[in-house]
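User: Can you predict the 3D structure for this chain?
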Amino acid sequence: MKKRQLVSFLLVAIIALTFISCDGNLRSQISDLMDSVSGNVYIDNGMIAANLADAEAVTETVTSIGDDTMTPEVDSSSTTGFSVTIGSIKVEVATDSTPLAAMDETAQEELKDDLSSAFNSPTQKAALLETLSGDASPAQQEAADDSIDLLNATLEELTDALPDGELKDALAGIDLTAASQMSKGDVLLVQLMTNLVSNTITTLDSIEGKALSDFDDDTLANYQSQLSSIAEDAQFVLETANNLSGIGSIDFVGQIDFASIFDSLSKDAKAFDLNDASVYLGTMNKLAPKIIKAMGISVTGTVFSYSQASYESFLENQKTVNSAIALVNGVYKIKEQVENSGEFNAVTRMMNALISEAIVRFDAFCATDDTLVPYTIIQDYLNANVKLGLGTLTTEDSLGDEFPWLSAFKTYLHGLGNTYFVNLVNTLKEFNRVSSEGMVQLSTALDSLLDTSDGDSPLTQWYYSLVE
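Assistant: Here is the predicted structure, written as structure tokens:
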């Protein structure tokens, strides 16, 4: 296997997930998707009936999504002649637009309870995921499409109304897309995002004596309960999206070989020595087949297939994850969240962020050229590197890197700017600092990326190497 030193495993993860290879290196330190948890032996053998009450309640709710839509109001000041109002935000819409309405508070709480209970039961979760994988109805597809347009327009108006600060920055980065053929699960996520955006606006509106333009970071920091409410809503959307995609089944902490990784770091804090394939190869082989499955990629024997519908569904899901993480992170920054206070696992949150950021950026790259079809690129890459997809790589293998799009992709990444990658690493550091399950060694690994004691940091060196 060809080798080259690179930066630490957390940065490498984002590159590996977007299917970059560099001189045949195998690079990844993220964990694998666990197989489904074992069911109850009595249920599995038909001796007792499974209790599916929560899953059935969610199914009933999802089936009704689209029944309650917003009716555009006549608005002579609008260029279209119609608009809808969400709290203090008014947005122009088409005459025939039928976006989803936000659920009332009681209905939202019931849905949260049912989803949480269903996802916490292996039997109910399996039944629910099977149901939600079905196609949305034409009416639901239309309502969800209109909702995506409305959400993006509403977020733009909200961002414009807010003063500069962490919340504005978090909201400005949200850009949602609709799959051309949505599943019931996709529609559920659109409903949850509709609820989240509506709740965020109404929560800010409810603060007496304040307009949206008043909410700079210092002002928002005085309203801890309202900030917590926004963060909790976003966290719920994040957890639901992860469960629907399969990412929620990843046992990141249990599957990463941290002992080898941290041992390698202790020998050389500046960068990983990838000559020692044992540091990362086992984790890579566990990861690849299962992350591929979570993306909706199918494999028959040694042939990989990726459909447009599966790719778009995964992309929509991960854009939702990306949006929720951005909002949670923005709120935490304003709250000046104290060390070890966040009720989430640092590694899990980091990998959520890396996976979602990777696929969103890869899709944005493909959008720069009509000839770049993302699901075809990923499919072709896997079929050219079958052992990667099957998780059977050895130290004697190389990953093919002769792809016409690869050079352009590296140029695209370079175009994001070094600050983009520095900010990404700092975000990961913040997750680890705030998490109640943070790891000191992980902070050391992240700090090593930004170490400038010998000149340019390893991160900056890698950044410059993209266009060498």
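The two ends are 22 Å apart (CA to CA). The chain has 21 helices and five strands.
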